[in-house]
Amino acid sequence: MKNKIDKFDLQIMSVLAKNARINYRQLAELLNTTRQRVSRRLERLEREGVIKKYTIIPDFDRLGYIYVAIGISLKPGAPIEKIIETLKEDEEVKVIQRAIGYHQLIVHLVAPKNMKEIERKIHELSKKVEGLEGMDMSFVTDIVKFELV
Amino acid sequence: MKNKIDKFDLQIMSVLAKNARINYRQLAELLNTTRQRVSRRLERLEREGVIKKYTIIPDFDRLGYIYVAIGISLKPGAPIEKIIETLKEDEEVKVIQRAIGYHQLIVHLVAPKNMKEIERKIHELSKKVEGLEGMDMSFVTDIVKFELV
Question: Domain B60-140's class?
Answer without folding.
Answer: alpha beta
